[in-house]
């Protein structure tokens, strides 16, 4: 008997696939909806290879409320949602902001509307540390706590902060309306997970990040430099007030992040807290040059880079204060930046074309042998 059934939006994407795996490994049934706009259905096969269970899959766009209704109708056991589906590139969001609002905000409204119709009452939302904007504008806010004032500096971050408000308003309204009617209300809950920079890959080497087109994030770009697909990495600014002039970020291994979503879901289901914003991070800040050096070490050679002007909307320091997650969720990061680089390099080296190729036979054999032993 499953612990529960979870709808994972964007579940074939990078973080969504690793979280779906963690849910299945911990007794949940999983239903994935994804448009496959920036992901691959092959991720479903890899999830099944790793845990022996296959999530249900529906190719549905997050803005398609009728499509979401059909999924909830087909899977009446769904009682919770983990919501990843979104466009996610900071730079691109400044070029096509309307599309980011249409998909990210419109999609969340469609999802909440459909959830309400089908009495699905728990939502874990994949938010972002970008909602804080430049936390250095306030005293004593680095590392960043959840009570830091919100002030995103780019369109992507603004879609995330808008979604946080929408989810908060909706969950609180549902609770208030039910309370006034003398009905149970505690079943409506939301966790707003503000996390920092996901990195790494599954340690097996058969599941990782496979963005279509040019990736926008530092580590996947470094992977392409390491395989020779790209000549160099661009470093956006070396005149920040940091130890080496480059921006500081809190990097979190995707396996730790997946566990964080599982912990948040369990927290909602067991304690019914209403809506809570919670940081997921390591609490350790790393500069861009720290990352380049760590990945160069994992790859066994120096990776080329070029310093270019800062990007619009970038800030000096996004390092989490994860104390609330440690306390409330009983969760903390366990894996290091070095491990993340090693795992990412194993994925990139063995899957230079991502999911558009079969991984090496010896990797698959190792995974199958491990699954058989378990």
UniProtKB/TrEMBL annotation:
Chemical reaction(s) catalysed: UDP-alpha-D-glucose = UDP-alpha-D-galactose
Keyword Kinase: no
Residue spans crossing the bilayer: none
Keywords, in A-Z order: Carbohydrate metabolism, Galactose metabolism, Isomerase, NAD
Any Gene Ontology CC annotation: cytosol
Gene3D superfamilies: NAD(P)-binding Rossmann-like Domain, UDP-galactose 4-epimerase, domain 1
Superkingdom in the source lineage: Eukaryota
Oligomer status and interactors: Homodimer.
Described purpose of this protein according to its UniProt entry: Mutarotase converts alpha-aldose to the beta-anomer. It is active on D-glucose, L-arabinose, D-xylose, D-galactose, maltose and lactose.
Family: Belongs to the NAD(P)-dependent epimerase/dehydratase family.
NCBIfam families: galE
Protein name as catalogued: UDP-glucose 4-epimerase
């Amino acid at each position: 008997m499953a612990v529960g059934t979870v709808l994972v939006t964007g579940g074939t994407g990078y973080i969504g696939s690793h979280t779906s795996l963690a849910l299945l490994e911990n007794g949940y049934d999983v239903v994935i909806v994804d448009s496959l706009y920036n992901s691959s259905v092959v991720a479903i096969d890899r999830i099944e290879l790793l845990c022996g269970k296959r999530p249900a899959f529906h190719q549905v766009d997050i803005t398609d409320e009728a499509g979401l209704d059909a999924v909830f109708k087909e899977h009446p056991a769904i009682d919770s949602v983990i919501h990843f589906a979104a466009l996610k590139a900071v730079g691109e969001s400044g070029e096509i902001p309307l599309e980011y609002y249409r998909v990210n905000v419109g999609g969340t409204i469609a999802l909440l509307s459909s959830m309400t119709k089908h009495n699905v009452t728990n939502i874990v939302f994949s938010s972002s540390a970008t909602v804080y904007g430049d936390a250095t504008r306030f005293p004593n806010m680095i590392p960043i706590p959840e009570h830091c004032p919100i002030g995103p500096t780019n369109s992507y971050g603004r879609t995330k902060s808008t979604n946080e408000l929408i989810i908060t308003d909706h969950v609180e309204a549902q609770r208030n309306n039910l309370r006034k009617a003398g009905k149970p209300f505690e079943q409506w809950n939301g966790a707003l997970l503000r996390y920092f920079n996901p990195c790494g890959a599954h340690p097996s080497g058969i599941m990782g990040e496979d963005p279509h087109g040019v990736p926008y994030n530092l580590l996947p770009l470094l992977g392409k430099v390491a395989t020779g697909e790209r000549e160099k990495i661009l470093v956006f600014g070396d005149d920040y007030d940091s130890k080496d002039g480059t921006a500081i970020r809190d990097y979190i291994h995707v396996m730790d992040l997946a566990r964080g979503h599982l912990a948040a879901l369990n927290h909602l289901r067991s304690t019914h807290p209403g809506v809570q914003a919670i940081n997921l991070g390591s609490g350790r800040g790393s500069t861009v040059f720290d990352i380049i050096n760590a990945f160069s070490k994992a790859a066994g050679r120096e990776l080329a880079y070029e310093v270019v002007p800062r990007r619009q909307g970038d800030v000096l320091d996004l390092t989490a204060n994860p104390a609330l997650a440690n306390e409330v969720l009983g969760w903390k990061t366990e894996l290091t930046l070095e491990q993340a680089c090693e795992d990412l390099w194993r994925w990139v080296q063995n899957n230079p074309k991502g999911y558009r190729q079969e991984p090496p036979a010896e990797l698959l054999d190792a995974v199958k042998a491990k699954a058989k032993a378990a």
